[in-house]
């Protein structure tokens, strides 16, 4: 096994890497299959040293071939092996047929029986590979259901069967693995959408493929890691002053939603913005100032009645966080339009996105942060379509509206239409009110300090998610946006 790389690839790209290794570098396909099988067996031995009974589920093709290698190695190690083929091994061809023949010299194939799952100490899922493009159904779906009902740990070979390695979507039914060992290139679908529920621990082995194989191939996406924070957020010079770190203006907080702007404003301040102003309904001013006096809070009864005050705020800011608690009434509409009429960089969320969906426009200097529902409105589609291919949705949003897009969710995707990033930090506790408001402020605060739209987006998402993970140390249920705010300062000072 090797360290997890940052580069992600589509299944088609990994197949091309496999082809290059075989045809250009002269590494026989059977050798790669043997290496994959040995790597998986080493992982099983490391993680489950007491396992005596191993259930190996083998499909057709090379993924099944990997499974046959594992079955043979398990038998040679003295384990009792239940080898359960999905299709007649005699129908296999190529390297998979050779691997099956070698395994069957030591292990008898057995017919599927759900009881096999209960008797196993560990299960190997080698049913389906990365080429799955249709819903799993019928007999295979029955197998997967029984496997997921069992208590034995499941090691998935390359990808949990039924999970799209392209999109991260469960196609009908998918194995819920304890860990997934993937080979040659990290598949992008293992990092977003449904994947977090299916893959378990992610483990990688490049199968000793030489680096030259990867030359000239641009990854489909990149994982955002903690290391990116240190690179993007160096220590400040001693002669720093607040004017060097930007001025963020948060616009929002219609009646009853003053908390949204307070959370966004503090998010911007906690990541280092030099100054933060808030424009909100007058009734919220005292509460925001009492909770966080560092925020300069202005009551704007209407864009027309308070025109001079609003124009002054817009002139002073170099980044506007637009949308938290903004509402879609006359007040919110007028402030939204006033912000769009400036040349100031924008971070747009919540009702700001709803206004944008109603009147689409394009800008290169903004960051849009939709959740799947907002993304669906922006693309005039439905949530199911967004979640079916989150990578394509993020790209479509960036190409339609410009700037950088943060498609929130499990495995948040950041895209500017050219480069994609995936954040795998974060936890289900973040599914609570106010989290998006904090993120708006975080990204705006980083943007104010000079980061580009795509860099502010990827670093902001990572910082926000890592802060949420620290805050969830005592439990995910009941995690509040304010708990995340309390952790941000430690995250952005790596």
Q: What portion of residues is helical?
A: 40-55%
**If helices are DSSP runs of H or I spanning 4 or more residues, what is the number of helices?**
19
- Average pLDDT confidence is 95
Domain count, please report it.
2
Number of strands: 18
Q: Given this structure, which CATH class of the largest domain is correct?
A: Alpha Beta
Compute the separation of the termini in Å: 28 Å
Largest sheet, if any? Answer: 12 strands, mixed
Q: State which percent range the strand residues make up.
A: 15-25%
Name the overall outline.
elongated
At CATH level 2, the architecture of the largest domain is 3-Layer(aba) Sandwich
CATH topology of the largest domain, which one? Answer: UDP-N-acetylmuramoyl-L-alanine:D-glutamate ligase
> How would you write the strand order of the largest sheet?
7-1-9-18-17-16-15-14-13-10-11-12
Low-confidence stretches: none
CATH superfamily of the largest domain: Ribokinase
Structural class: alpha/beta
The radius of gyration is 26 Å
């Amino acid at each position: 096994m090797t360290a997890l790389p940052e580069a992600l690839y589509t299944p088609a790209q990994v197949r091309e890497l496999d082809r290059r290794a075989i045809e250009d570098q002269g590494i026989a396909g059977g050798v790669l299959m043997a290496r994959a099988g040995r790597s998986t067996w080493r992982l099983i031995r490391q993680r489950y040293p007491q396992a005596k009974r191993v259930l190996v589920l083998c499909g057709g093709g090379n993924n099944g071939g990997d499974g046959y290698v594992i079955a043979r190695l398990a038998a040679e190690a003295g384990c009792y092996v239940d080898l359960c083929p999905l299709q007649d091994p005699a129908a296999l061809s190529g390297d998979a047929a050779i691997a099956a023949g070698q395994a069957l010299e030591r292990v008898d194939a057995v017919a599927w029986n759900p009881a096999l799952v209960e008797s196993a100490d560990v299960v190997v899922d080698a049913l389906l590979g990365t080429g799955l493009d249709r819903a799993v159904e019928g007999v295979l779906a029955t197998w997967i259901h029984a496997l997921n009902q069992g208590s034995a740990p499941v090691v998935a070979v390359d990808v949990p069967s039924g999970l799209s390695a392209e999109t991260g979507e469960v196609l009908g039914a998918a194995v819920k693995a304890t860990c997934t060992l993937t080979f040659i290139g990290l598949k992008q679908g293992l990092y977003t959408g449904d994947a977090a529920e299916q893959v378990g621990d992610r483990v990688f082995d490049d199968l000793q493929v030489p680096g030259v194989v990867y030359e000239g191939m641009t990854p489909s996406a990149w994982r955002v890691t903690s290391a990116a924070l240190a690179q993007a957020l160096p220590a400040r010079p001693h002669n720093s002053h607040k004017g060097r770190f930007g001025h963020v203006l948060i616009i929002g907080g219609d009646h009853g939603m003053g908390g949204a702007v307070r959370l966004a404003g503090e998010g911007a301040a906690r990541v280092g913005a030099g100054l933060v102003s808030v424009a909100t309904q007058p009734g919220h001013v005292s509460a925001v100032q009492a909770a966080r006096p560092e925020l300069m809070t202005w009551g704007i009864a209407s864009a027309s009645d308070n025109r001079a005050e609003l124009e002054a705020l817009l002139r002073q800011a170099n980044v506007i966080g637009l949308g938290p608690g903004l509402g879609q009434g006359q007040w919110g509409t007028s402030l939204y339009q006033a912000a769009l009429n400036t040349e100031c960089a924008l971070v747009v969320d919540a009702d700001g996105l709803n206004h944008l969906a109603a009147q689409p426009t394009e800008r290169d200097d903004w960051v849009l942060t939709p959740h799947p529902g907002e993304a669906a409105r922006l693309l005039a589609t439905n949530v199911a379509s967004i979640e079916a291919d989150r990578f394509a949705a993020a790209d479509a949003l960036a190409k339609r509206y410009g700037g950088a897009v943060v498609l929130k969710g499990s495995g948040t995707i950041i895209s500017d239409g050219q480069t994609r990033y995936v954040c795998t930090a974060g936890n289900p506790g973040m599914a609570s009110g106010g989290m998006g408001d904090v993120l708006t402020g975080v990204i705006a605060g980083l943007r104010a300090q000079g980061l580009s739209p795509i860099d502010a987006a990827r670093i902001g998402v990572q910082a926000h998610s890592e802060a949420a993970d620290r805050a969830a140390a005592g439990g995910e249920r009941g995690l509040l946006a304010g708990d995340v705010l309390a952790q941000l300062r430690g995250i952005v000072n790596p």
